[in-house]
Amino acid sequence: MQSGGNSTMHHGQTSDWWKKSTVYQVYPKSFKDTTGSGTGDIRGLTEKLDYLQELGIDIVWLQPVYVSPQNDNGYDVADYCSIDPAYGTMDDFDELSAEVRKRNMHLMLDIVVNHSSTEHKWFKEARKSKDNPYRDYYIWRDPAPGGGVPNNWQSKFGGPAWQYDEATGQYFLTLYDKTQADLNWENPSVREEVVKLMTFWADKGVSGFRLDVINLISKNQDFPDDDGSVPPGDGRRFYTDGPRIHEFLKELNRRVFKPYGLVTVGEMSSTSLESCILYSNPEQEELSMTFNFHHLKVDYPNGQKWELMPYDFEQLKSLFSRWQTGMQAGGGWNALFLNNHDQPRALSRFTDDGQYRVESAKLLAITLHGMQGTPYVFQGEEIGLPNPQWNSIEEMRDIESLNMFRILQKQGKSAKEAFAIIRERSRDNSRTPMPWNDGPGAGFTAGTPWIKLDERYPEINVQNQLDDPDSVFQHYKKLIALRKEMPIFTEGTFVRLDEQHPQVFAYGRLSGDEALLVVSNFSGNPAKYSLPDSMASEWLKPAGASELLAGSTQTAPVLEQEMILPPYGSYMWFIRRQQS
Ligand code: GLC
């Protein structure tokens, strides 16, 4: 079988096992609470491993459970090698790890080393004086000549990226919250600490890491002002995919990832295709794969997250196609995803979460899982969970949302206008508790949940779906299994087949005499779709050489050159090509 033209694909037996895997992302705070505290915990995840195994999951990505003041729900780490009591104990972690292994699954930990919490002992030392040995673990600068911040870089959560420290008269850099101080990777001691903490977890037997905003760790050491000539003009071009990033990643690979045989995925903020090829091409010895977010900005007018607009369907399709084709040509590997804990639910954002909720959820799954890469399923996605129905800002918890609610009003919006934006864009949309059943607390907690439960849990919950052959859950299970059985999912060459169709996204995957065809109608109206002539002649003769692998509706159209797709109709066919 040909390998889809990917000459740099690993030839080793097991080194790229994760290409056929599906990763499940667990936001522990909202997954399962075993104590009645209202906050999910590690033992809750252990309890639900059978569920994940049933789904066919190979890798469980556990989001941060380290000691943290929880200003950014654990992405503000105060101690990298201890478990936050809110989530349990190290014994709970070891038990989880053993139970994961027992099921032949793998555990992936979230590593947050662009910054630490200002509660970390390194930072507490660093701020004591300019000559403290930990001072240089962080990024300090004098005020600008006329006073004020050293440069005009903006924090991702709103406001300036610098915090003034009274005691020592300098500013420290915080690209996220003001309690998340950026670590100084130029300092070899910092890199040594990172190797140490990664080794600690690797020694405990975890199989991999998800590296939080890892492409921001190398800053332009001149710290120039952003003159705004390149949007969004907030300084990011001076620290995104920065000058020494590849060197730093190669060091981590050489010292930790490779010796322990880890699977790694980098979260790449505002990155480029060219950089992601370098990060993930195995010859470069950096990471296994990368997340990028371009396809999740197609509803940001001019890149502005805090302004609303309907999403640009053509752009969504072009971005997927560009990254599929580009990563394939460059020998890189995509982490495929539509949801995570920082994004509103794709179901509500790109499709219909009301009348066509089930069809929509299945359509998104087919469209994503047919592509090349390693798919990620974010908790709740596999049961078609929509955005919750927010009634007021008081129901929200996320630091970014609360900051922006204030900032939008400062910019002149009324509270009502600001809330209308926040409720669409808030990261809390994906952070409401997992509905396990229709009982009290949705089976998530016996107490009061830390954030509201979506009221639709009596209808949308796990229990409802496990035994229903037509459920979204069963649909995901099928797609996850197909990827493991059929090499074409990992190897096939991607070709886009929809010629700017206003409703339909269609693509093929080609491998030898085999093909996959994926056709999805992203609209609430029937859509007419015609397969291009060149494909039709190879694919539709002799009749009967195709098999429907998955569909979003009870009955699928017959595979013909011209088809009428029902609302949110999405289908995946396996085809034996007729080559002359
Ligand atoms: C990443 C995380 C996000 C966090 C940020 C800062 O984007 O996914 O949740 O707020 O990094 O650590």
TrEMBL record:
One of its GO terms (molecular function) is alpha,alpha-phosphotrehalase activity. GO terms for cellular component: cytoplasm. Keywords: Glycosidase, Hydrolase. Gene3D superfamilies: Glycosidases, Golgi alpha-mannosidase II, Oligo-1,6-glucosidase, Domain 2. SUPFAM superfamilies: (Trans)glycosidases, Glycosyl hydrolase domain. It holds the Pfam family Alpha-amylase. GO terms for biological process: trehalose catabolic process. InterPro entries: GH (IPR017853), GH13_cat_dom (IPR006047), Glyco_hydro_b (IPR013780), O16G_dom_2 (IPR045857), SusG-like_C (IPR056300), Trehalose_TreC (IPR012769). Its EC number is 3.2.1.93. Residues 25-431 form the Glycosyl hydrolase family 13 catalytic domain. Belongs to the glycosyl hydrolase 13 family. This is Alpha,alpha-phosphotrehalase. It comes from Paenibacillus yonginensis. The lineage of its organism: Bacteria, Bacillati, Bacillota, Bacilli, Bacillales.
